[in-house]
Amino acid sequence: MGRDRRSDAKDSADAVLLILVLILAVFGLVMLYSTSAYNGRVKFADPAYYFKKQLFATSIGLMAMYLISLVDYRRFIPAAVPAYLLSLALSTAVLFIGDEYNGSKRWLSLGPLSFQPSEFAKLAVVILLASIVSREAEHMKSWRSMFLVILLVLPIVGLVGANNLSTAVIILGIAVILLFVANPKFLPFLWLGALGVGFIAIFLSLASYRLERLAIWRHPELYEKGYQTLQGLYAIGSGGIFGVGLGNSMQKLGFVPEAQNDMIFSIICEELGLFGACVVIFLFSLLIWRLMVIATHTQELFGALLAAGVMGHIMIQVILNIAVVTNTIPNTGITLPFISYGGTSVVFLLSELGLALNVSRGVKKER
Question: Which spans in the chain are helix H?
Answer without folding.
Answer: 2-11, 15-44, 49-70, 80-97, 117-135, 143-161, 165-182, 187-206, 208-218, 227-239, 264-297, 301-325, 343-366
